[in-house]
């Protein structure tokens, strides 16, 4: 008679399952074993993971002991910068940015107890992730992987050289080599990914596994975005006692724009005529010449503000006396890198000639900035469509119009023309005006304005072609975002395509300069 062995006494029960709240203490102990010297999860982190996305939190259990785990969330990776950090992608470890409608499973951690690292635990966890991606019909799995052996080679090679050597199997890295064997491909190398990962010198390899079973279920897709934030200042003209008073007001608005992370802040036309309020010169033509004496202080002020507050400034406009003793109405671009450009007003109004004897400029400038090409067309200039078309042909995507008008009729001429230029040229236009009063200041005693940001009129743009507008005749700022990528798409595929559909065989604009 044979004795039947009880095989159950030899069994070791390996289970891959979802994490439970009761596992949290073991997970934190496991992390301390796996990553000594690095900050472990907090209980609140893991509780958040389980509350938000339990399916993405997986553990390996052997005979009732947690010996491995992995954590993940779902995102739309296109919404994140390729140079993101671990904190960016995990919401500082709490995964509150998890998006159930996203396309990508992002793995934020895998760990296996050091005593069980020859049992293919990591492989099993990765396979569980892949199965989850298939079940949820996700496009890919993305991970930011450590390169923990890099510290041994950092003195002799760059992170890129190290990764290449591991990829060619010349060097073994316990994480990167493992990921490559599991079907992940290298996307890029991210610096400063995990600040406390000293062994990797803070580097991480951005890796991706593509789900070949992915089935598109809608026409939803992501397109590139190129947002530019603009702060428009509707500036109150009021009596001041010194240039320092003017500088304080200007700095206040620049600070507001900077706090809002604006790329541009725009001031109105000839708002430096506010300086006339503390001058005792009554004759308008002489008062204007007095203002030109502040040109250097004006330029130094705005150059300093642009650099200090990290914002490009359209410095309204200012009357400048040049070597020929003629006075011009000039708008300056003060870039945040400290460089300066200028645009002369080309069309001078009858009023400017009569009261101040202003001379006309003769060049249409387009300026390079860190947010693409822009143009400045001062007040009356926006009412001449040829100028905007020339600027557009030179590459301008945004036309800034500082203006100063005394009544509603004058204001509406500027506004309607700015909106027309946006439609005609498929560009964004921005108008910034003065409000308030300057008593006892001839030709600047009253103001009327309602500033705004305008877009072409098509489905992807703001309703009515108005990105935003201020309330009329009160001092305030308008902050709005425009998207240069939408502009490019609409020029190519919009309902109408004014730039592409021009009849060059019938007409043309000849720019003599």
Written account of the structure:
This protein is of the alpha/beta class and 513 residues long. The chain folds into 2 domains: 199 residues, 3-Layer(aba) Sandwich (Aminopeptidase), CATH 3.40.630.30; 265 residues, Nitrilase/N-carbamoyl-D-aminoacid amidohydrolase (4-Layer Sandwich), CATH 3.60.110. The strands form 2 sheets. Strands 8, 9, 10, 11, 12, 13, 14, 15, 16, 17, 18, 19, 20 and 21 form a 14-stranded mixed β-sheet that branches. Strand 16, helix 11 and strand 17 form a beta-alpha-beta unit. Helix 11 packs parallel to helix 12. The longest helix is centred in the last third of the chain and has 18 residues. The radius of gyration is 32 Å and the shape is elongated.
């Amino acid at each position: 008679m044979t004795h039947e062995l009880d095989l159950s006494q030899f069994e070791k029960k390996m289970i891959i399952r979802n994490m439970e709240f009761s596992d949290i203490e073991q997970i934190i102990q496991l992390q301390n074993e796996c990553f000594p010297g690095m900050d472990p999860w907090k209980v609140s982190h893991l509780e958040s993971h389980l509350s938000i996305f339990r399916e993405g939190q997986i553990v390996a259990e052997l005979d009732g002991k947690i010996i491995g785990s992995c954590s993940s969330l779902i995102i739309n990776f296109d919404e994140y910068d390729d140079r993101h950090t671990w904190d960016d992608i995990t919401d500082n470890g709490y995964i509150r940015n998890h998006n159930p409608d996203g396309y990508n499973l992002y793995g934020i951690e895998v760990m296996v107890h050091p005593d069980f690292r020859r049992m293919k635990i990591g492989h099993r966890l990765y396979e569980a992730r892949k199965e989850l991606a298939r079940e949820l019909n996700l496009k890919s799995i993305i991970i930011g992987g450590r390169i923990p052996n890099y510290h041994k080679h950092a003195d002799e090679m760059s992170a890129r050289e190290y990764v290449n050597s591991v990829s060619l199997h010349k060097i073994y890295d316990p994480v990167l080599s493992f990921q490559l064997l599991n079907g992940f491909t290298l996307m890029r190398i991210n610096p400063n990914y995990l600040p406390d990962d000293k062994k990797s010198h803070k580097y991480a390899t951005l890796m991706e596994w593509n789900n070949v079973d992915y089935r598109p279920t809608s026409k939803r897709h992501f397109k590139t975005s190129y947002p530019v934030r603009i702060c428009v200042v509707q500036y109150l003209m009021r009596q001041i006692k010194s240039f320092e008073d003017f500088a304080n007001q200007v700095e206040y608005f620049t600070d507001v724009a900077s706090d809002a992370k604006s790329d541009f802040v725009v001031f109105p036309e000839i708002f430096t005529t506010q300086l006339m309020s503390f001058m005792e010169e009554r004759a308008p033509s002489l008062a204007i010449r007095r203002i030109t004496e502040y040109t250097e202080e004006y330029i130094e002020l705005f150059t300093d503000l642009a650099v200090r507050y990290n914002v490009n400034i359209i410095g309204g406009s200012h009357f400048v006396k040049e070597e020929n003793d003629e006075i011009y109405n000039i708008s300056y671009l003060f870039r945040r890198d400290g460089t300066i450009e200028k645009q002369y007003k080309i069309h001078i109004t009858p009023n400017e000639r009569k009261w101040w004897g202003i001379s006309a400029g003769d060049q249409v400038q387009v300026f390079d900035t860190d947010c693409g090409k822009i143009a400045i067309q001062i007040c009356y200039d926006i009412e001449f469509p040829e100028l905007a078309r020339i600027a557009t042909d030179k590459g301008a995507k945004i036309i800034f119009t500082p203006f100063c008008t005394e009544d509603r009729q004058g204001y509406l001429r500027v506004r309607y023309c700015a909106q027309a230029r946006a439609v005609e040229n498929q560009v964004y236009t921005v108008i910034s005006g003065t409000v308030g009063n300057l008593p006892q200041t001839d030709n600047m005693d009253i103001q009327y304005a309602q500033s705004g940001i305008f877009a072409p009129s098509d489905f992807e743009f703001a309703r009515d072609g108005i990105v935003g507008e201020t309330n009329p005749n009160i001092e305030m700022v308008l902050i709005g975002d425009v998207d240069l990528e939408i502009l490019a798409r609409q020029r190519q595929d919009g309902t109408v395509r004014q730039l592409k559909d021009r009849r060059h065989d019938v007409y043309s604009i000849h720019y003599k300069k």
